[in-house]
Amino acid sequence: MAGTLIIYDTTLRDGSQSEGISYSAADKIRIAQQLDDFGVDYIEGGWPGSNPKDMEFFDRAKKSEWQNAKIVAFGSTRRKDVRVSEDVNTRLLIEADTPVITVFGKTWDLHVTEALRTTLEDNLTIIYDSVAYLKDQNKQVIYDAEHFFDGYLANPDYALQTLAMAAKGGADCLVLCDTNGGTLTSTIAEIIDQVLEAGLSVPLGMHAHNDSDVAVANTLAAIERNVLHVQGTINGYGERCGNANLCSILPNAALKMKNVQLSARVRLADLTRLSRYVSEIANLPHREEAAFVGNSAFAHKGGVHVSAIRRNHLTYEHIEPEKVGNRQRFIISDQSGQSSILQKAEEMGHDLSANKEEVNEIVNRLKELEHLGYQFEDADGSFEVLIRKTTGNFSGFFELKNARVIVFKYEEGHLHSEAVLMLRIGDHLQHTVADGHGPVDALDKALRKALEPFYPSLRDIRLIDYKVRVLDSKDGTAAKVRVSIESDDGHMTWGTVGVSENIIEASWQALVDRINYKLMRDASL
What we know:
Elements: E1 3-4, E2 6-9, H1 25-38, E3 42-46, H2 52-62, E4 70-76, H3 88-95, E5 100-106, H4 109-115, H5 120-136, E6 140-146, H6 148-154, H7 156-169, E7 173-178, H8 185-197, E8 204-208, H9 215-224, E9 229-232, H10 246-256, E10 260-261, H11 271-281, E11 299-300, H12 303-311, E12 329-330, H13 338-347, H14 356-372, H15 380-391, E13 399-409, E14 415-425, E15 428-436, H16 439-451, E16 462-470, E17 481-488, E18 493-500, H17 503-524
Parallel strand pairs: 1-10, 2-3, 2-9, 3-4, 4-5, 5-6, 6-7, 7-8, 8-9, 11-12
Antiparallel strand pairs: 13-14, 14-15, 16-17, 17-18
């Protein structure tokens, strides 16, 4: 019978030590609520007393209702030469008032003598005292054996003694930590087998860091050996190279391993949404190439791949994307063949299967444009405009008669940008002037000012991203640039692209496609 995986999330503690992440207490509560809804078993909130944010988090957590998860306070074993009942860190752990406390202790004899600066025997007493005292406070106690694998390689007998002492103190789980993240998977597997042979009566757990880029593999190797308590973070966030990534561990365990299952309350189909939510709160870009949850995880670009996957998705997909809340995507590029074009057009509501000449024309035009520097991978809006123009299904919503952009400087040093446009909209000739924070902003405002009286829905458009890429830097300031714009209207998100030696012209192309795509979609509703 398959065992049930126990999910211990440390995104809020270990994950917050990642460079570039600084969660507020409110951020941590929001993430914890999402983790609870997802179905994790334990949420490690932080180290009480280490900073005011963690103390505020635990205060707010006590006032919140948790449906699935237990909140965990994290800290160290007592200091040497201090009675555990008088140890400040231990007192703060108890005052956090969580049902579960995780304490880490020294396993590696090098750390005992060099970092802790005590004897091996005293360290065993410290471990026992700390765990036993916390158990006396009616807490569930998880013991993290810090640097366990390095410690075992250096002195296996002593490393096992530290585990035995934590078990004697009443620990509910003994977690084997690859704290430096330097142990390879084969070694992890061998050591876990030897620890299991030692016959400890307490369940084991796994906590891996990713310094050798094998944290997920190491955790899966532990699960294969029925070590079912696994610790990790969403998106693999963590100090240095990060922690074991739960977004990879959970689907691999649930969908590919026979000896383990997820609890029925775990909502695996929400994994992609959870991953993106955490990256948004962390104010970090979501990793496009991330396994399972990345935007590119089930994206197909090559024509041969797309042709095969249209017949059977298993040809180039290892799972059904929907099982982790992701989706299949077909990317249009100069590597696309007819299958890619047909599939992408079909997604957009265009059946081109009966007209091979049009498909060939689109393929050739696409390759020509990408040779000039265009990129349609994230520019679905521009690609649909291209399809409609090629197939004769494009109705122009407006026509540019002339445009002028002026940039000048005031005496006090501020640059001023102004755009003047003349557009034909049906039978009307519209003349508008607008200023902006820069020439592109001025152009966008003038364009929308002219069009919104005729097309009110354009007021819903907002800019999500504006990127400029120099295509050939050897040409210096005369180099061709690619401008990519991502837009949103509250219902859909779309990208457009423009290319020119003139950044204003490239921006104009992307802005026009942005408007045309929105109006085309509105017209089809």
